[in-house]
Design goal:
Blueprint (H helix, E strand, L loop, with lengths): L2 E3 H18 L8 H27 L11 E3 H13 L1 H12 L1
Antiparallel strand pairs: 1-2
């Protein structure tokens, strides 16, 4: 079974986030400090989602000894995909809070 560590998953997700931020036209009006805060918030939310998935898997006998620092690849990609799904909504909400 292939595992992905939490650091690897966060790195992959942040690369995607940075690409999305570069594409977004409204970001150039957003203060740089707020962009950093948004990225930090995305990382902490991602860590929470990652640990929640580990907790869910630990209830199964097969994964009862699973550590919080890694997930099977299929579940790690599911966490990334779920976080990507509502990214634009979270970004627009952040922009609305600024202005």
């Amino acid at each position: 079974m292939i595992f992905i560590t939490q650091k690897e998953a966060i790195r992959a997700y942040l690369i995607w986030v940075d690409k999305q931020l570069d594409k977004e036209k409204n970001i150039k009006y957003m203060p740089l400090v707020k962009v950093g805060e948004f990225r930090d918030h995305e990382v902490s939310s991602f860590e929470t989602a990652f640990m929640t998935m580990v907790d869910e898997l630990r209830t199964h006998k097969k994964y009862k000894n699973l550590n919080y620092d890694k997930l099977p690849k299929t579940y790690a990609t599911r966490v990334i995909r779920d976080r990507k799904r509502n990214f634009r909504d979270r970004l627009l909400n952040e922009l609305l809070m600024i202005f």
